[in-house]
Amino acid sequence: MASESKGGLGFLSAPPAAPRLSDGEVAAKYPRMRGQVFLGIFLGYAGFYLIRNNVSIVSQIFKDHDIMNTVQIGIVANSVLIAYGLSKFFMAMLSDRANARYFLPLGLALSALVNMLVALVPVITASVGLFATVMFINGWFQGMGWPPSGRILVHWFSTNERGWKTSIWNCAHNVGGAGVGVAAAFALQNWATSPDDWRPAFWFPAIIALVVAIIAFFLIRDRPEAVGLPPIEEYRNDPAKVEMTDDEVEGMSWVQVVLKHVLTNRIVVLLALTNVFVYTLRYGVLNWIPVYLGDYTGAEVSDGIMGFAIFELAGIIGTLLCGWVSDKVFKGWRSGAGILFLAGTGVAIALYWLLPSTAPIWMFYLLIALIGGLIYGPVMLIGLQAIDLSPTNVAGTAAGFTGLFGYILGATLASTGVGVLIHNFGWDVTWIVMIVICVVAVIFMWIVGRDERKLMNEREAQASATE
Ligand SMILES: O=P(O)(O)OC[C@H](O)CO
């Protein structure tokens, strides 16, 4: 891609193509490099989740020791989410022109630094405003994780294998999410100087994240062409679903490309809208598990936390299954898998709603696992579709655009909107609204699916015509 080396980002700019290696060298080096860069983004993205929002981990300590009340905790936690949603889009615009080998480790190291400052500089947490501002900055650096990972996925893995590979990579966020709990618990147990000392839960995961950033730097390479290898489409003889024409490559500025292929691209805009509903479902069910189980069944707080963990763990299985189904059953037609999993989510939510309050807790857990397993498929698929259905040099921006909608609208609706629904209308109306959201999401995914199918058919026709 001609524009790859013209990033204008100084040392961060994407490197130019290196001289092409011989066929023998390509055959030996390509598989090894693919494994190496994949490990780099898997560890790297898990590292981001170690330090994304550790406020929620220590919120109980904040509350119990009157360091912060729930409203203040909510303000700080929301500032991370909002910054993350904005950054996932705006930093992606830089990432698409940047060397992923530098961009991802830099973001992770900066985020680690912010977490260490929170732990070690008491004045930051003395005021909610300053704490929220610093965590906003943390959320901003967190947005430097997904886009370079998407860039690696789109440049090193071709269309017909990307579903499965992306779904495996996507489990990094579940691994990191589980890892932060273990790391924080270990740190608090070993280094907390008093029952209200929450600081080890910030600085210890940050040290691990710094080490991960260094490892990621050594593992990641920006693009196959940057190390003398052919583009992945050529190496695997698997055309991309969308490519820029020669006229576009030569004649359009990068901003014009973003405008055409992301901001006014019907399919990317539809994906972003679908993501609002998918993220409302993801966080709308997840965030309220402890409250629902407590209200409806009288379950203990610990039962609710168990439900929370079950939802996340089931997400790993569902994500892998969804990626595999999209490659093997739907042959790269991601929307087919998305429709199937979203429809399943609707059914599972209906069962969760209708289960009698006297049913044993394991039945609630089973349905929570089903909802978590099913909704994380579409969560992963939307990012995957965005990078699949846009040219490779704006793939991260397209995924970031869907993330912007998912976090700014979806996650907000899931917290404030669902809270208002529960408070004013009760659980029955809340679950009915959730099921309606599933139906709307299915309709949006079906519309995306028609466009996706058309693009796939066009690419296949072009590929057979050139054979
Ligand atoms: O919600 P995010 O941006 O952390 O992304 C989580 C998954 O990777 C979505 O594919």
From TrEMBL:
Gene Ontology MF terms: glucose 6-phosphate:phosphate antiporter activity
Transmembrane segments: 35-51, 71-90, 102-124, 168-189, 201-220, 267-285, 305-325, 337-355, 361-384, 404-423, 429-449
Subcellular localization(s) per the UniProt record: Cell membrane
Membrane topology label: Multi-pass membrane protein
GO annotations of cellular component type: plasma membrane
Entry keywords, A to Z: Membrane, Transmembrane, Transmembrane helix
Domain of life where this protein originates: Bacteria
A biological process term (GO) from this entry: phosphate ion transmembrane transport
Domain Major facilitator superfamily (MFS) profile: 33-453
Keyword Membrane on entry: yes
Stored CDD domains: MFS_GlpT (cd17345)
Family in the record: Belongs to the major facilitator superfamily. Organophosphate:Pi antiporter (OPA) (TC 2.A.1.4) family.
Name of the protein: Glycerol-3-phosphate transporter
Organism of derivation: Ancrocorticia populi
